[in-house]
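(Deposited chain)
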Amino acid sequence: MIKEEHDLSVMAAPQGSAPMGTTVINIQPEMSLPDHIAWSLFNTIYMNWCCLGFVAFAYSVKSRDRKMVGDMIGAQTYASTAKCLNIWALVLGLLLTIL
């Protein structure tokens, strides 16, 4: 039976090598940015006056897509537009239902 012998000096790092470099990873804190997709879906199904619910749903989906990509400013812009459209859809839906 043949035994293989390994020389530890060959496997170890060289003695005179350059110092090891460091790597810094900046991790962004997790932001809770609402995309209002549930509210938009509700307005699309029940309060879709002048298609405002559907448009709000489209902006909510765009906001979620931007958030997945990491563009928080774009996601916040789309989310605020979706919120505004949802408010208008809800107010118009309630007013037209009452009248």
Remarks:
- The CA atoms of residues 35 and 79 lie 5 Å apart.
- The chain is about 60% helix and 0% strand.
- Helices lie at 8-11, 37-45, 52-69, 72-98.
- The mean pLDDT is 83.
